[in-house]
Amino acid sequence: MSLDSVLTLVMLVLCICLAALMAYLISKVNELELKTSSLLTSNQTHNRANTDIFGGLQGKQLWDAWQVVVSTSVDEIGLDRDSDRLMMLLELHVRELVGAGKRSHLSSSSDTPGDVVTLKTLRGDFQSYLPTSFTESFFAAGKKIGSASSDDDRIQAISELETASRRLGAMVLADEGFSNRIASLYM
Q1: Is residue 66 located within the same domain as residue 150?
Q2: 173 phi/psi in degrees, rounded to 5
Q3: Would you call 48 helix, strand, or coil by DSSP?
Q4: What is the pLDDT of residue 158?
Q5: Cα end-to-end span (Å), the chain
Q6: Are residues 69 and 130 in the same domain?
Q7: CA 174 from chain center: how many Å?
Q8: What is the pLDDT of residues 134-168, one digit of tens each?
């Protein structure tokens, strides 16, 4: 056996070992990716089931937690991911209050609804909370809209509704169209 033959044989053995090592490493990386992917998927579905929408909070607890997020930008329970839903529910709450105000014009009862309203949604009942100042403002705007005897009175009442909606929108960091969507229902 010549030196060239031995060198070629050693090179061939090293190439075979290197190919086997590469195949082994690739299979281990694939196993690791598969395990990581399955863990991430199961963890995401597990967390979402436990936390539910708004971290399971409703009513005043949700309002208080959202105010912390708005004022400090600290979101420990992930409320920000559901902010669009929260804005929709607040719009529904405002509509309920304005509607109650309009209906109170027709009945003898003029009791302002409470701060917490139960909203009917596709996911079931939901407790929504607004501070008393907003509750009274929206209810009063609804009463004025319902009892408006002229177009000027109606425009004034809608303007008050829009102002209260803007204040609420600023307090919860709603988008620009928040107050417009609410007021446009009564124009």
Answers
A1: yes
A2: 60, 45
A3: helix
A4: 94
A5: 100
A6: yes
A7: 11
A8: 999 999 999 999 999 999 999 999 999 999 999 99
